[in-house]
Amino acid sequence: MPEIVAVPPQQLLERILTLEIVRVTERAAVSAARLRGHGNKIAADQAAVNAMRRELNNMPIDGTVVIGEGERDKAPMLFIGEKVGNSNGPKVDIAVDPLDGTTLCAKGMPGAIATMAMAEGGTLLNAPDVYMQKISIGPGYAEGVVDLDAPPAENIRRLAKAKGVRPSEITALVMDRPRHADIIAAVRSTGAAVRLISDGDVAGVIHTADPENSGVDIYISTGGAPEGVLAAAALRCIGGQMQCRLVLDTDEKRERAVRMGVTDPRMILSIEDMVKGDCLFAATGVTTGALVSGVKFRRHFIETETIVMRSVTGTVRIIRGQHRQLEKFHLA
Questions:
Q1: Domains of the chain by residue range
Q2: Which parts of the chain are beta strand (E)?
Q3: Topology classification of domain 9-122+279-329
Q4: I need a labelling partner for 71 at 20 to 30 A (CA). Which of 188, 224, 225, 332 fits?
Q5: Tens digit of each residue's pLDDT (9 = 90 or more) over 206-252
Q6: What is the pLDDT of residues 59-89, one digit of tens each?
Q7: What is the pTM of this model?
């Protein structure tokens, strides 16, 4: 008879949680997808929040939201500090963006996702909902190839040298914002290409981890801090480098950061600073993009596609779901 190998309870639980977080992002994505193209990003985001919170509270965890929709006075649900789960499980930190790319969803444009990360309790950066400077590249490079404080043109030249190509063969992904005009001009001055995105910088950072398929070598932008921590969780699972800095440009923001344990407002944060322990990451497509396909409403079932990762194993799975108990997706 084949030998039966017992799986330690902690490992079994971790495997279960891998599937459980997929259910969370699936439900959020389906709820948001019902409002694709309706022009109301607030309603789409709220639908995703409601669905995600409902599913999180069914999970066998003692969870705390450390990256959420904002501080408690600004977010009625999934606010920073909110407790989630049924308390019958491990203590974990939760980072969520129920709808990354709210405008993309509202306009029916590609790339909107529902995403979350889960890590051992006390290991995710507890960051205020402020802007964050970000630069990221994929795996396989020596540490320090790029530097958040270096001029964009210098970073392009450094990366091209490390990759063994001309700067003209490098593509930088940048959020299309007026504040990035100087970055865009500097990158193009080297001969490198710039690809602009209107929203969705979690997926934007992830694209740097797979340049052969995404065509993206480097991400340079200032976006939301919550999205930065989520992206760091993904890169911790699949590899890459990322440097970030919180934009704490007012006394009020600096005070909020101090209350959350950020004592150095100028500190450059690495992936390991933002995600210290084992973590899980999942993203389900709301609208079809380069990372995952969007929700498809069939006559008798709903199709979803989710990418789920785990840092301790480096495993990446693409899960395509067909959901036939449609009544579960019609909850308010």
A1: 9-122+279-329, 131-274
A2: 62-67, 83-84, 91-100, 113-120, 131-137, 171-175, 193-197, 218-224, 241-246, 269-270, 279-285, 296-297, 302-310, 315-323
A3: Fructose-1,6-Bisphosphatase; Chain A, domain 1 (3.30.540)
A4: 332
A5: 999 999 999 999 999 999 998 999 999 999 999 999 999 999 988 88
A6: 999 999 999 887 665 667 888 899 999 988 8
A7: 0.89
